[in-house]
Amino acid sequence: MNATSVKRLMPADLAGRAAALSLVANFGLMLLKIVVGVVSSSVAVLSDGIDSAQDVIAAGIAFASVRIGARPPDLTHPYGHGRAETIAAWAQSMLIAGGGVFIVYRAIHRLFNPPDRIHADIGLIAMLIAAAVNLLVGQYATRVAKLTHSPAIASDARHLWTNVVQALCVMTGLALVSITGEFAFDAIVALVLGAYLLYTAGNILVGVLSDVLDGSLTEEEIDAVEQAIRAEQPVVPYHRLRTRRSGQSRHVDFHLILPPEMSVAEAHVIADRIERRIQALWDGTVVTSHIEPAGDPASYPAREGGVSEKL
Q1: CA gap 103, 87 in Å, rounded
Q2: Can you tell me the distance from the alpha carbon of 306 to that of 308, in angstroms, rounded to the nearest whole number?
């Protein structure tokens, strides 16, 4: 298979490519660490290999969710399929938490049942390779997550960075075993890794809950939306600004307060102009505006500067 064929197999979008790269890298590292963990008798390396097996499943979920989330809206999903990525992030958090619990259990068991020997040298080589691969893939996934705002890729990127930390911890433990001959360091490192995985799973779950509960966009993003509305001259009063995220898509809706004598066509031109400015901020942004006549009792009184309160 030549380079052109490989390129054709890769997804065209950034998020899809990042998910595919993570899947391939995690699968290779899983095989390496599980084999080395068994051969070296290191519970830390084996635990990291088990975590990599979960990474393969998590990366596969991320890849599938990005493909599903990229589908356009249809009759049964008029708001798109972005929630697929939120579900993927939740599944990843559960996998990480499950791995953390298992590794903690294995580490405690190893503390009370130490092996006869640990081959630290081969374990160090394997973990050095794992750290280098995760570092490169993690940097790429982080850049893609910032560009696409994909929750699935963002959680996958965080997971890759935790893998770098894990590899360094395992290497430290193996080095201590090699220097001191004390096998307990191997189990202690595995115990720390398990606790770290549980912490990471909790952080990802917090982000998932924010998406599920329709948390608003960040303050910086809301400020950018408000600036786009205020760019209209003369300034148009507005209220009930609401924002949320669904997968990689942002949703913005608000009410514009316009003079009652203005024609529907004129009001529509103004609303379209403001919507296009907001859509230009981020690809895939869905903007919905509603026009209200000034003086309507249902309209909020405008604040200074012609802008009324947000909902």
Answers
A1: 24
A2: 7
